[in-house]
Amino acid sequence: MPTLLTPADAATILHVPVKTLARWRFENSHLPYVTLGRKVLYRESDLVDFVARNVHEVIQ
Fold first, then answer.
1. Where exactly are the structural domains of the chain?
2. For a FRET experiment, which of 2, 12, 31, 38 has its CA 20 to 30 Å from that of 45?
3. What is the three-class DSSP state of 23?
4. Cα-based distances in Å from 53 to 20, 47, 48
């Protein structure tokens, strides 16, 4: 069973406001999420993948 996080927990991990996560859900982009009834949750593995996809290498 994957670890599921609340929007508040996910926002803390990603260093973004909870409203940003809500906007991303509304836009249906950026970050996958799970709904259980009316509850919105995020898989911890999806947060890790999201961060990995958004790493930008610096070329010197």
1. 4-53
2. 38
3. helix
4. 18, 10, 9
Q: Is the dihedral of CA 38, 39, 43, 49 positive or negative?
A: positive
- Put residue 58 in one of left, alpha, beta given phi > 0 → left and psi -120 to 50 → alpha: beta
pTM above 0.70, yes or no: yes
What one-letter code names the amino acid at 10? A
Phi-psi bin for 15: left (phi > 0), alpha (psi -120 to 50), beta?
A: left
Number of H helices and E strands in the chain, helices first, is: 3, 3
